[in-house]
Amino acid sequence: IHEDLFYAIKYLKSAALLKHEKAAFLLATIFSNNSNKELQKIAFNIANISADLNYSEAFELIGIFYNNGVGVEKNIIMAAIYFRAAADLGIVQSMIRYADVLLFIAEKSWRNY
User: Fold this and answer.
1) Which tens digits make up the pLDDT trace of 74-90?
2) Which is the most buried residue in 58, 61, 77, 79, by most CB within 10 A?
3) DSSP 8-state assignment for residue 44
């Protein structure tokens, strides 16, 4: 790990332990960008902590994790639930992501019809 990233993780961890919701979110983002599957699972768990602290962007991040299978098994329905939660909290990008997931589900259902 690059020295700057090491210190970022160190201080974000301290802030997250003090229940700073954005610090937890940023830690989850850092760990999710690693190809190591164990770190991605940690990222998913930290994102859930941030969401438990009601950080709206964490709901979108969890949706992205479910949508792409990052740290968790890919699940389009769970992705939709979290995108909707983030959209309800005013995250515009999640509104778009939620609509995209609904379109994907609709197209898949139509093809199977």
Assistant:
1) 999 999 999 999 999 99
2) 58
3) H
Give me the residue label for tokens 């940690």: 42
Helices (H), the chain: 3-17, 21-32, 37-52, 56-68, 76-88, 92-112
C-alpha–C-alpha distance, residues 50 and 57, integer Å? 9
| φ, ψ of residue 73 in degrees (nearest 5) | -65, 140
Q: Which helix (H) or strand (E) holds 78?
A: helix 76-88
* Token code pair at residue 40: 């991605």
Closest CA to 98 of 111, 113, 79, 112: 79
**41 Cβ neighbours under 8 A, 6+ residues apart:** 71, 72
Q: What is the pTM of this model?
A: 0.89
Q: Is the pLDDT of residue 59 over 60?
A: yes
Model confidence at 113, pLDDT cuts 50, 70, 90, reads: low
Which residue's structure tokens are 């974000």? 12
Structure tokens at 28: 């989850």
